[in-house]
Amino acid sequence: MITLKEALIKSNEEMIALCAELESKAKESGLNAYVGFQRSGVGVPILIKDNIQVKGWSVTAGSKILQGYIAPYEATVITNLKSKGMMAFGRANMDEFAMGSTTESSFYGATINPHGDNRVPGGSSGGSAAAVASGLAIAALGSDTGGSIRQPAAYCGVVGMKPTYGRVSRFGLGAYASSLDQIGPIAQNVEDAAILYDAIKGHDDKDSTSADFKIEDIANNLNADVKLTIAVIDSYVEAADADIQKEFAETVAKLEAAGHTIVRKELSNTKYDIATYYVLATAEAATNLARYDGVRYGTRAESKNTEELYFNTRSEGFGEEVKRRIMLGNFVLSSGYYDAYYVKAQKVRHLIRDEFNAIFEEADLILSPVAPSVAPKIGASESALEMYKSDMYTLGVNLAGLPGISVPVGKNDEGMPVGLQLIAKAFNEKVLFDGAASLEKVSNYKN
Ligand code: GLN
To answer: Does pTM top 0.85 for this prediction?
Structure first.
């Protein structure tokens, strides 16, 4: 597959022909990475996760409840990429409402990891990652609330980047947990990820949490030869499987040999990441998803009165994982539990952020695993809690609002990709991408 950089100098006719080719290849592949094949705009086709509005397209967030809903306006990221020689092409499969780590909870059925062996592609942006990894898309947009760009990128052997909270407009992104959600690129390499990030980033009046200060273009000045101070947290890495630990140790040695300074640090509050995230994310999700009541959006169930309308529409429209999170969210927000859970989690969130920031006083980047294992087999998650645990390395970045990037560094003995994550200080995407370019160079990963 040609890279995004190469595609940007091709003609529009060539790109339209490529779309037809991608559509037939995607249908033949059996991966179930795409759930639609519309085209909007002219230029290089970028695959769009099914929770980002493209005016006039259906947008379902992988849910039955949004079947039949057509986006009445365009997400800012789509407007932005259209002004940079790209177009929206195709809908990427995802976990329902971006809740999940495997893309198995989609109304359209599971996406398959292109590395074979009946593995999940990760989630929730699993369709985006699987498509880029298998040559079914040049690049894609995903969204990351607790790892949903970085983790599928790692499982599929591609690059996935979550920008600093506020760097990329959320206008037109179907909300899961608004204080954590960010849209970001999934691409074949670090340079392409930077090109796509450059295209979508920037202040937006339509998003009240959008950051309004100067930002630099990154792709044109990428420096893979920088020398940085990179923090590693040994106790954190020990929780990962042996194959991940091995890749991690080898990568640290390569980075050191390339001239980076490695410093050992501690992150003691990370043990609270999962609990904190699943209190806050479910609280926000319960609030955001209250709008799906059968009155205004998508599917409406048969009913005799208003109460029945809400009840039946939600019962039939939402999947099991989404219902679980709405229940959890309402529980932690309910009177009597609000202080014990929600308020406490907000306080711990600050502690987590402060701890990250203390490390960035002395280091440019933190290197960590993306997930404790390679992609699991389809159907292997024994319980919701098991799945939540696999988010341990990605959630803290969202809780602290930091930018992070997942870069493939190698494969385990079974041929499954291993990705590692770099994390930078808020709004320091330049250092993040330079570090990622260096990590990519020393790893020399081939898909
Ligand atoms: N796996 C996490 C969750 O289920 C993260 C999802 C995401 O980033 N959208 O909430």
So the answer is: yes
